[in-house]
Amino acid sequence: MDKQLSKQDNHFLGSGWAFPISFSAGNAELDVTQYENNINNSIDVILKTKKGERCMEPDFGSGLQEFFFRKMDETLKGEIRDAVESSLRNHEPRITVQEVDVDYPDLQLGLVEITVVYVYNQTNTRHNYVFPFHLKEGTNLG
Questions:
Q1: Angle formed by the axes of helices 35-48 and 74-91, nearest 10°
Q2: pLDDT in tens, 16-39
Q3: Where are the beta strands (DSSP E) in 4-122?
Q4: Which of 44, 39, 46 is nearest to 123 (CA)?
């Protein structure tokens, strides 16, 4: 997080409902996210949303779910990279994506690690976001 920006300087980053929607225990108020956390929360929602899932915005989301159970090769890396770049470009106007790196840290478990390097448009401050994504069925059987 960018500790150099004051609350007055980073108000443009916005605030909104936390996702998943939750309430604070003490005073039963709606939990909200602000500033850098709000953008990271927004990126998370975009990457986890399946295209067509929102009936009023059928193009919203990344559609990463269509890559489940696919062969983990260089072609898949390129397809995931393109899906992430285009979805963030179209649905998160507060940032500019500079780089998307897709890596396979654990082929056996089907883990795909997506690293997004981006800058805040208003301040040109660079940040990154790491999204773990599983392509194979999760199981706890040994």
A1: 130
A2: 656 555 656 777 676 666 557 778
A3: 15-17, 32-34, 95-106, 111-120
A4: 39
C-alpha of 74 from chain center: 21
DSSP character at residue 117: E
Host domain of residue 103: 30-134
Residue 17 lies in a domain: no
Q: Enter the DSSP assignment of 31.
A: P
The CATH number of residue 91's host domain is 3.10.450.40
pTM over 0.85: no
How many structural domains comprise the chain? 1
Quote the CA–CA distance of 96 and 109 in Å, as a whole number. Answer: 31
Place of tokens 């986890």: 48
